[in-house]
């Protein structure tokens, strides 16, 4: 006869499996269409779970993404803080994280979450404004008051490269992509 502990463990395994199926389905759907156009019906059909199973875990698709978003924000903030004065280490670690986690690659893609994309752009602008630009703009005739615009330019360029890298199935390693980015901003 199953014990109470084994029943709880079995339920936890089942819940974890359902959440993983939904996450994998979201990744696949993000390859096909935008986050905003994905419906709960499509998500549960792709995952092979019932709507009631979905609603046992999440209120809606935004609730599903919110948990991943919180983890992503925390991880990206940690990476930027940990590698505060090392842009190369920061970018490599961010790209390794995206490479290892398909859900985040999907959320960064053109079809992904606009909120996550804006957060990442903000972090990239911060990286440029605080670390990269002051050293690189010296003697180039760009006044300090324009550094904000230059950081926006570079952040959007880097983000565009990031999305292209994801769209191209991450052919280059995080190290190669980072080396290219650093070469482009020299």
UniProtKB/TrEMBL annotation:
Protein name: TetR family transcriptional regulator
Residues within the DNA-binding region(s): 39-58
UniProt domain HTH tetR-type: residue ranges: 16-76
Record's keyword annotation contains DNA-binding: yes
Keyword Iron-sulfur: no
Record key words, sorted: DNA-binding
A single GO molecular function term of this UniProt record: DNA binding
Stored Gene3D superfamilies: Tetracycline Repressor, domain 2
Pfam families, sorted: TetR_C_8, TetR_N
């Amino acid at each position: 006869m199953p014990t109470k502990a084994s029943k709880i463990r079995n339920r936890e395994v089942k819940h974890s499996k359902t959440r993983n199926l939904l996450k994998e389905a979201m990744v696949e759907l993000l390859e096909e269409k935008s986050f905003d156009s994905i419906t709960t019906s499509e998500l549960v059909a792709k995952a092979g779970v019932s709507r009631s199973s979905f609603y046992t875990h999440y209120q809606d698709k935004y609730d599903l993404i919110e948990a991943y978003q919180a983890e992503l924000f925390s991880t990206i903030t940690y990476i930027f803080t940990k590698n505060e004065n090392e842009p190369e280490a920061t970018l490599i670690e961010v790209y390794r994280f995206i490479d290892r986690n398909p859900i985040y690659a999907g959320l960064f893609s053109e079809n992904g979450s606009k909120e996550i994309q804006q957060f990442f752009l903000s972090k990239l602008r911060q990286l440029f404004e605080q670390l990269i630009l002051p050293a690189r703009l010296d003697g180039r005739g760009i006044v300090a008051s324009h550094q904000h615009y230059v950081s926006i330019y570079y952040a959007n360029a880097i983000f565009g490269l990031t999305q292209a890298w994801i769209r191209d199935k991450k052919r280059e390693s995080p190290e190669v992509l980072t080396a290219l980015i650093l070469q482009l901003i020299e």
